[in-house]
Design goal:
elongated, ferric-chelate reductase (NADPH) activity, STEAP_metalloreductase, 234 residues, transmembrane helix, 10 helices, transmembrane, two-stranded parallel ribbon, mainly alpha, membrane, 3% strand
Length: 234
């Protein structure tokens, strides 16, 4: 987009025609009173990241306090059990995949809403509402934040076997079987479910990373529309 402002409509229209001839999209910003604001655009710090970051922080706080109440406060009050160490790994590992899926859904939801609005209006040449236009412009940032949460979920999951709580629970189960002189046989159904769950998670994260890579300008400029569309649909 190329921002254009001016008090002379004919001159401004001429400049906008030149911009279109160069293959760019002119955006009329009004009179010369907007010139100072346009000149300050390059000095703004991450202007398109404000909404995704604030939304992510709000959702993180909401789910954190929800999980804290359910997994730490409730057992401590009603069962007198101290699970405060869940705050370090268990609760973040539960929050990260939830936020990744919510933010990923918010990446594609505005496109669906835009299509519905276009079908309702019967044309694609009218501007979208401001809230939808701003939402669509920050979809890439929402997707990258979602990818960051998914990556954190992978890291938290990898450290689960070395956690003190997990090692204590495994050792207590072994001691319990030894004292009872009873060995639990392998449940093939549970093994299949567990391995399938992990395999699908790895595949899903790989596709997520692939989607994030193809969204980078340096990569997306090297693929045609059909190739980009293929990755997005998959």
């Amino acid at each position: 987009q190329v921002f254009v402002c001016g008090d002379d409509m004919e001159a401004k229209q001429m400049v906008m025609d030149i911009v279109r001839a160069l293959g760019l999209t002119p955006l009329d910003q009004g009179s010369l009173l907007a010139a100072q604001e346009i000149e300050n655009y390059p000095l703004q710090l991450f202007p398109m990241w404000k909404f995704p970051i604030l939304l992510s922080l709000g959702l993180t706080a909401f789910f954190f306090f929800y999980c804290l109440t359910r997994d730490v406060i409730y057992p401590y009050v009603y069962e007198n059990k101290d699970f405060s160490f869940f705050i370090a790994i268990s609760i973040p590992n539960r929050i990260c995949p939830i936020l990744a899926l919510i933010l990923l859904a918010l990446v594609y939801l505005p496109g669906v809403l835009a299509a519905i609005i276009q079908l309702y209006r019967g044309t694609k040449y009218r501007r979208f509402p401001d809230w939808l236009d701003k939402w669509m412009l920050c979809r890439k940032q929402l997707g990258l934040v979602a990818l960051a949460f998914a990556s954190l979920h992978v890291l938290y999951t990898l450290v689960i076997p070395i956690r003190s709580f997990v090692r204590w629970r495994i050792s207590s189960q072994i001691i319990s079987q030894a004292l009872n002189n009873k060995t639990e046989p392998l449940n093939n159904s549970n093994a299949w479910l567990s391995d399938s769950y992990v395999a699908l998670g790895i595949l899903g994260f790989f596709l997520f990373v692939l989607l994030g890579i193809t969204s980078l300008p340096s990569v997306s400029n090297n693929v045609n529309w059909r190739e980009f569309r293929f990755v997005q649909v998959r």
